[in-house]
Amino acid sequence: MTAANGASSPDAYRAQLQEALDFLREGNRYLVVAHVQPDGDAISSTLVVGWLLRQLGKQAVLANEGAVPARLLFMDAAASIVNHGKQPLEEKFDRVVAVDCADFRRIGTVKDLFADGAKLLNVDHHPTNDAFGTHNLIRVDAAATVEILHDLIEFAGIPFDREAATAVYTGLLTDTGGFRYSNTTPRVMQAASRMLAEDVPGYWIANHLLERMTKPQLLLLQRGLSRLAFSDDNRIAWLYVSYADMAETGAVGDDLEGLVNYALNVEGVEVGILFKETENGEVKVSMRSSGKADVAAIAQSFGGGGHVRAAGCRLQHGMDAAIATVVQTVREALDR
Question: Partner of 13 for a Cys bridge, out of 7, 57, 254, 274, CB 3.0 to 4.6 A?
Answer without folding.
Answer: 7
